[in-house]
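Dear Dr. H.,

I hope your travels went smoothly. While you were away I took the liberty of generating a structure for the chain from your last submission, since the lab meeting agenda had it listed for discussion. I wanted you to have the full record in hand beforehand rather than looking at slides cold. The sequence, exactly as received, is reproduced here:
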Amino acid sequence: MGFRPRHRSYFVVKQKAERGYFLSKNAVLIYLWKFIKTSGRLKEMPNDPTPPLNEVADLREWKRRLSLLLDYTRQMSLRKDLDSLLGVVVDSAREILQAERCSVFILDKKKNELWSRVATGGHTIRIPADRGIVGQSILERRVINIVDAYADKRFNPEVDRASGYRTQSLLTAPLAKMRGDVIGALQVLNKKGGPFQENDEKMFILFAEQAASAVANAQLHDDLQTAYKDTIFRLAAAAEFKDHDTRLHLERVSRYSRLIAGAAGQDEEWCERLALASPMHDIGKLGVPDAILKKPGKLDESEWKEMYRHPNYGADILANSENELLLMSERVARGHHEKWDGTGYPSKLKGDAIPLEARIVALADVFDALTSRRCYKSAFSLPDALKIIYEGAGKHFDPTLVEAFKRVASNIIQVMETFADRPLDPPPLPAAPKTYNIE
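The corresponding predicted structure, in token form, is as follows:
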């Protein structure tokens, strides 16, 4: 069986870190050094105050590795989303173990598969969870150190043939949570300067345990975000269902908004929040009578007056919350029909007085309205839709956001095509772009 840490100093560090306590680097190094010496990781220092040079080198290497481990553990603890975390795991494992490549395998329990979301070198690998070296490492809960890959029957050379890479040595460790649940595995390839040694195995276990904790937290964060998004989309879909729009409309507007926000210079967290807030833009349609929303022809004056109220209806639904996402959703709902030149509704706000998130969603929503079928019109062609968007700069839309839209237009078109509505009944006769007025 593989190495199992048991010394109290190790668990002091681990438990304090998991409970959110901050420990200085020196404090952690002291704890871990006690653990290393007591567990026999290095030979006891002799009574001679001048230790042999090889032991001095060992001490320096352990200090280097422990310092890196602490630095990367802190970095991993700050990563909430799984994709960016796995990138940190790969880079840190390579540096700490001095390996050429690293792959992180994530366990999909439903499919009983292990799949690599990050593999240095750019190749995605999928394997059954109970086969191969990685499968054995998980099954037996131990590190597997292979000095010569091609001399080991467990190694599958097809991976090298497919990638063009030559594996010489490899080290594999399971990713297991505190309670023992396995969530994946780590594998490093080709140590620089020779095969992996016993000390590499022990350091790899230390690193794998820290990585497993970070991955488990990121998976929980992703699951919560997925549930959050699903709840928001289901609530927003209730309003869109009344207006013959689809969940795909919400998905497109969400993705368009995120792309525009990113191109406009907003940070990742803000963009992610907007992607979740934007589907709520028309939640106020819940308060508009179906006879108005589903009317196939033009609305009369009284009907328009009622329609103009839906941004305020939506804002009222979302008001009085302390949650940042709902606060942003309220601003989006109230302001996404305002226009840059002050001719929009419900408040005739102008320019920067319109919240940025509402300006972005206004642009995304209009583009989707132009390129999608409605009960009163067929979809505009892409060139006509883009022409309306570009000509609306400084009038309907914030001109800086139109420029941001242009920078990511190819990505927006890809989203439009990927999440296109299914064709149902024959569309109505085409509308004339020059006379169409987006409200």
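Two observations you may find useful: DSSP finds 17 helices and six strands in the chain. The first helix runs from residue 8 to 18.

With kind regards,
E. W.
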